[in-house]
Structures are given as structure tokens and as C-alpha cells.
Amino acid sequence: MKFKENLPTFLIILLLLICLMYSYIKEDKESDNLINVKIVPTLITKLCDNAIYTSTFQLIWNDLKEEVESDIVFLDDNNNQMVLDLNQETFKESDLSPDYYYKKHGYMTPSLKEEIKTNILNKFNKNSDILDEFNFYDDSQDYFFYSMLAREFEFLYPFDVLNDTEFGINENSKSELDKNIKVLYYKDYSNYAVLLETKNNDEIILVKGAVDNNFLEIYQGINLEIYEQFNSDDTISISNLDFKVNGSYKELENKKFLIGDNFYEIDKTLEVIEFKMNNKGGSVKSEAGMSVNKMSFVPSRHFDFSDNFTLFIKEKDKNLPYLGIKISDIEKFR
After folding, report:
1. In this structure, what DSSP letter does residue 198 have?
2. In this predicted model, what pLDDT tens digit does every residue of 173-205 receive, in sequence order?
3. Of the candidates 264, 222, 227, 229, which has an alpha carbon nearest to the alpha carbon of residue 74?
4. In 123-177, at which residue ranges do the beta strands (DSSP E only) sit?
5. How many angstroms separate the CA atoms of 35 and 33, rounded?
6. Less Cβ crowding at N or C end of the chain, within 10 Å?
């Protein structure tokens, strides 16, 4: 296999968190959503026990940065860790083939909503799960950012169904099934990784035993240049997956920033991820949306130089100050 320096075209990094694969999560049957599973917006976001990532939110954040023409900096929260992670753009459009995704942004009007609905139906034969959660109106000066990723994949050969919840290869499986798998490494009984081949342009990577801080560290710990064949005596069991999870990024909402000379505020964020995988293959659908409101007023600010500040005096049109005072305790200067 030729080594790929970039991320694989089909980024199912969500599968790397192996606790998902082995059913340590619980499913809410009534809402068809997962509970206690966190959607993370970037590949470098610190992981919790059960986490999932797709590239859709990062893609719309990149579009927001293009509008601002710089990194996003919140006026009242300039050390927001999620913003710092997103601003690094660890995933870009060049990391994904155009056939895999759709994205659009513009003024938040009903015509934009209808354009998005029409385009994703034409491209993916999919309907949106999130557009109706946002308010579009005529003559809007607010922005809306949207992206969808949709893919289906099929294994080279259908795996054997092992039981009601798992598929894979056992002692009685046909030898042709071994072609589905490349062993990336096997360190011991609790630390290994495999790659599942598909008929499509997709590679499914499963990792067991990784203890890194984020998805990117886990992924970068895998050398795709070196692999072993799946031996005739080897066996594998893989959990069926069928879930839909949604979430928002409250750390970003109601935060103010500048686009040119205008003040804007991130009003609402939403990401929905749907994933299925069984012995034959699987599918992924992910959507992200973000509304950014133009503010009709300049937020009030207070400048406090009553203590703990520095003062300079310079002659106009000269380069350097002729006086400097650093004050850490105002009482010593009064």
C-alpha cells in the first residue's frame, strides 16, 4: 500500500475511538440518539471516553474564516480553546474529494435554504435534518454556513454474521474474506490496528488500545506504509453500528467578533451525524450548520486604567516615547 501523507479521503476517524466499536455506549431508543457521546469539532480536540468527529463543522468554520480574512477572535473570550483548535484548520477541503461533500454559505434568506435543499437532494439524494432548526427570513443581513458529507461503502466481500450484534471472520469462514483486512500492527492482545478494504475509494481503520489525547494523535500513530496480511488462523469480531447523534457547540454561541467594521455574533450551531455499518458495508451522513447574526449596535466596553497599567508619552510624529511608566500598585504613584 502506498503511504498517504494526507488524511484518507473518507474520514471515518469516528471509528478510531474503539470503545464505540465495542458497545460501551448506550442508545436512547425513543429519540434515536446516543447519550453520553460527545461530538468534537476538530481532530485535535481533547477526547473524552465516548466521542465522535466528522469534518463538516470544520469546513464551515474555514468558510467563516475566509469571510473574516483572518483567525476568528472573540472580543470577550480570546483564549477560547475550541476557537483556537478550529482556527488551526487541521482539516481542509483539499483533504476530501468534492464528491464526498457539499457546502454553502450566504445571507440567511429563504432562497438560500431552498437552494441548499435542492442541491443536497440532487447531489446525494438526501434531505436535511437541520435546516428547519434555523430561522431564515427575507432581506436578512445575517450569515448562514452549511455543509453535508454523505457516503456509502461496501466491503470487498461480505463478512460472516457472527451473532445478532457482531460480524467478522471465525475458524469456519471462507479464505476470501481475509482479503478484506490488512493488519497495520499487532503489539499484543489489547493493542492493535487493522484496515478494512472496500469496493469504493474508502478505507476503514479500526484501532484498539490507543490512549492518545485526540483523534489526530491516534491517526498519526498508524503507519499505513507497513502492514501484514490477515493470516488464515486469525479471527476478528466487529460490532454492528447504527446510530444518529446530534449536538451543538455552546462554547461558540453568543460570542461576538468583527467582520470588517461590523460586529457579528454566532447565534446557533448544530451538527448531526448518522452512521451505519454491518457485515456488508455501511454509510455516513453528517450535517453542520451555523448562523451568524449581524449586530445592530456596538457592544459597550469599559476601559479601566485605575490600576495595573502602563503609560507612555511620545511626541507626535516621533517613533519612540520619551516617558514610560509601568504601574502595578497605584498607591505608590498617588
Report:
1. B
2. 999 999 999 999 999 989 999 999 999 989 999
3. 264
4. 143-154, 160-161, 166-169
5. 7
6. C
Q: Which residue has the cell 448531526?
A: 272
Residue 235 has pLDDT above 50, yes or no: yes
Q: What cell does 17 get?
A: 475511538
Give the count of beta carbons closer than 10 Å to the beta carbon of residue 88.
Answer: 12
Distance CA 25, CA 49 (A): 10
Closest by Cα among 152, 251, 192, 204 to 14:
204
DSSP annotation of 286: E
Give me the number of domains the chain comprises: 1
Residue 315 belongs to a domain: no
Over residues 115-165, the pLDDT tens digits come to: 999 999 999 999 999 999 999 999 999 999 999 999 999 999 999 999 999
What pLDDT is recorded for position 168?
Answer: 96
Alpha carbon distances (Å) from 212 to 22, 45, 223, 286: 18, 11, 15, 25
Residue 118 phi, psi (nearest 5): -65, -45
Average pLDDT over residues 36-45: 90
308-to-211, 290, 298, 322, 324 alpha-carbon distances in Å: 44, 39, 26, 20, 14
Residue 154, domain member (yes or no): yes
Q: What is the Cα–Cα distance from 10 to 268, expressed in whole angstroms? A: 27
The dihedral of CA 54, 149, 285, 279: what is its sign?
negative
Neighbouring-strand partners of residue 205: 195
- In the block, which residue shows the cell 479464505? 175
pLDDT of residue 1: 34
Task: Indicate whether 230 belongs to any domain.
Answer: yes
Q: Would you say residue 48 lies in a domain?
A: yes
Residues of the domain holding 199: 1-303
Report the candidate in 20, 62, 99 with the shortest Cα–Cα distance to residue 273.
20
Cβ neighbour number for residue 317 with a 10 Å cutoff: 5
